[in-house]
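Reminder to self: tokens first, then the designed residues, so the page reads top to bottom the way the pipeline ran.
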């Protein structure tokens, strides 16, 4: 006797004592959905290869299920563990989030080696050929975030007619930079159907695809013993809960991105101070770098205020007495620099507020410089993240352990001092190193120690946000090196890249909405780059800047940031009045876009882009209007296919541009006049 259970986009079949996930909407999947390996139990495949079969997966018997509102809870049991898998649906998307909880039901301690958050069996259907199914992965690097590669499963090593093998397609991260090599997400495509997944971990994570008895499966979760050095001991009756994962489906790329975007809005961090998506100026990029001063800020801030920015952020260097190019090994006290701010930082932040803006300060709260003698003397050895009893050291920094109350106390006082004494309305929390596999201190394994430390840090963040609700907290990790949706549950805004070349930024900005909500994705806009030209080093003078920085450069920089959150930067005070007017107009238009970003969905007319393309486009679809950025990066005319009949199209920014648009059915052609130009369009369907 079998029973079918439908829950949001899921369909289950219960037969005798077995329950299997049969489909995700109309995307074919089949088989069990939870896998657990326990030390000493028989794993029915080679150790250190694939996750499936696990020791407990085939032994898990259906016990019960319960539906309450938008939540489905399924209980299964083996002779060793009880497994509770929780599915949650949402009213405006077919995305489903899933986590699994494992309980030791024996009288002895057991050790978990592998635990899935979710497994989808037969994920592309019984008749799927590896040649016809594709996986898109999202590669990451400094200055090259969110770069996609789409390959067939055959090209990735999957073969037809191989019922079981050890070959796997996998993605993973090991360490505290969760997205240093790849984003914890992917898109499966087969026969015009798309399935997107994401893993919500701010440290290590892992997924794999492989064949098992002729079925292609997708395993999603965080670290495991063979891939991340993770294990967890459970005493009798103790349990372990995995990180959540999310899956959604559609019949198009834009459709599946839209489903995931709607889901992310249910889990994203929110901040009252950030509700209007204010424009932010940060004087780091192409301006102060690591050496801000009171004098320079006083000179630039009035111009920034006149352009319409709402926040003025002083980045690295407001602290410490050492020169900016030498400061990092000495950081950790987080007390104001008298060398750069001789009358105190508060005088400068008060000046910023007197101009009608709010003031921000930068901090890297998870590290201590190896030459910061005061804090090394203050902290005990157990205040640091260690391996084999030694402090983990990377690039001249040690890592603080937020499981330690002394760390919590000092850093909480630091945030209080920054807010109440120094006048910070905005705090940029940076993280510029990766500590690696984790710690064996007070943990069952390196991976489990890393998980504990990461959870403790975010717990501290939540207390600071609750204590200072008027402060806007930004998360940054050397650009986008920790750009995951566990982190983004705790912050309303995240830095997506530290790319320093404005002509390269479109390749990131046009893909980034597949990874981060537009209302969270901060993108730099630096109209005045400080690289100079061949044979002509940069000069911070009005004459040099206006001879070398064109109006088109200003326009492209503004458009780079329109689809996300604007982080304006650089020597804007040196631009001529007409070029400053382009910034002012850009900020005004950006503020108009902010009104729709909380509901708009990403739209990629060319699909994903890469650094080889000469034509790039990405937009936000809201109702019957598409807000579209189009970049010409070395070509001339750009024709954009839109899949719908276009009723009208216009250049929304810059308003005075004499740019010819041609509309033909479902296509819009932009006639560019220079090799590197950008225009922002409003298109009505």
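Designed residues (685 positions):
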């Amino acid at each position: 006797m079998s029973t079918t259970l439908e829950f949001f986009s899921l369909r289950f079949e219960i037969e005798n004592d077995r329950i299997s996930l049969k489909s995700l909407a109309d995307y074919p999947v089949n088989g069990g959905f939870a896998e657990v390996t326990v030390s000493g139990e028989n794993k029915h495949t080679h150790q250190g290869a694939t996750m499936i079969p696990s020791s407990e997966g085939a032994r898990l018997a259906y016990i019960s299920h319960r539906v309450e509102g938008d939540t489905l809870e399924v209980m299964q049991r083996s002779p060793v563990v009880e497994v509770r898998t929780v599915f949650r649906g949402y009213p405006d998307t077919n995305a489903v989030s899933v986590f699994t909880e494992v309980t030791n039901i024996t009288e002895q301690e057991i050790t978990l080696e592998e635990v899935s958050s979710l497994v989808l069996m037969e994920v592309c259907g019984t008749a799927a050929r590896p040649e016809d199914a594709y996986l898109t992965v999202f590669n990451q690097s400094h200055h090259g975030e969110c770069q996609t590669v789409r390959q067939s499963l055959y090209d990735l090593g999957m073969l037809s007619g191989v019922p079981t093998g050890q070959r796997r397609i996998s993605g993973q991260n090991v360490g505290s930079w969760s997205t240093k090599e790849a984003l914890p997400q992917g898109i499966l495509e087969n026969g015009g159907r798309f399935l997107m997944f994401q893993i919500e971990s701010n440290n290590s994570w892992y997924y794999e695809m492989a064949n098992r008895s002729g079925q292609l499966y997708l395993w999603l979760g965080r670290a495991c013993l063979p891939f991340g050095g993770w294990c967890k001991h459970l005493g009798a009756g103790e349990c372990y809960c995995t990180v959540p994962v999310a899956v959604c489906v559609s019949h198009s790329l834009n459709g599946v991105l839209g489903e995931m975007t709607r889901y992310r809005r249910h889990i994203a961090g929110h901040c009252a101070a950030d509700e209007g998506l204010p424009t932010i100026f940060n004087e780091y990029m192409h301006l102060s770098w690591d050496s801000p001063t009171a004098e320079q800020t006083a000179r630039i801030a009035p111009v920034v205020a006149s352009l319409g920015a709402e926040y003025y952020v002083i980045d690295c260097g407001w602290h410490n007495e050492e020169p900016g190019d030498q400061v990092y090994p000495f950081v950790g006290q987080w007390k104001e620099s008298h060398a750069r701010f001789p009358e105190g930082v508060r005088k400068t932040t008060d000046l910023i507020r007197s101009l009608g803006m709010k003031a921000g300060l930068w901090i890297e709260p998870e590290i201590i410089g190896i030459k910061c003698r005061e804090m090394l003397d203050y902290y005990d050895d157990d205040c640091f993240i260690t391996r084999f009893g030694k402090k983990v050291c990377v690039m001249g920094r040690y890592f603080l352990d937020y499981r330690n109350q002394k760390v919590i106390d000092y850093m909480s006082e630091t945030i209080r001092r920054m807010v109440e004494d120094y006048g910070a309305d905005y705090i940029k929390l940076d993280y510029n190193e990766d500590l690696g596999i984790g710690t064996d201190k007070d943990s069952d394994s390196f991976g489990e120690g890393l998980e504990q430390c990461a959870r403790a840090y975010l717990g501290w963040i939540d207390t600071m946000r609750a204590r200072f609700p008027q402060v806007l907290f930004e998360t940054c990790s050397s650009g986008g090196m920790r750009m995951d949706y566990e982190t983004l549950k705790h912050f309303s805004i995240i830095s997506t890249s530290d790319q320093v070349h404005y002509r390269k930024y479109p390749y990131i900005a046009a893909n980034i909405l597949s990874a981060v909500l537009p209302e969270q994705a901060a993108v730099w806009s630096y109209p005045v780059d400080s690289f100079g030209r061949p044979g002509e080093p940069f000069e911070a003078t009005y004459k040099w800047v206006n001879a070398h920085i064109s109006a088109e450069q200003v326009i492209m920089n503004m458009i780079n940031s329109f689809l996300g959150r604007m982080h304006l930067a650089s020597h804007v005070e040196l631009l001529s009045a007409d070029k400053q007017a382009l910034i002012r107009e850009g900020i005004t238009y950006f503020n108009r876009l902010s009104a729709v970003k909380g509901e708009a969905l990403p739209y990629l007319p060319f699909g994903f882009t890469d650094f080889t393309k000469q034509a790039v486009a990405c937009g936000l679809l809201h109702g019957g209007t598409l807000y579209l950025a189009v970049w010409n990066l070395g070509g001339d005319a750009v024709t954009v296919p839109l899949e719908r009949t276009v009723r009208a199209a216009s250049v929304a920014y810059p308003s005075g541009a004499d740019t010819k648009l041609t509309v033909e059915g479902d296509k819009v052609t932009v006639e560019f006049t220079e090799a590197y130009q950008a225009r922002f369009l409003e298109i009505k369907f």
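Residues 60 and 77 are 5 Å apart (CA to CA).
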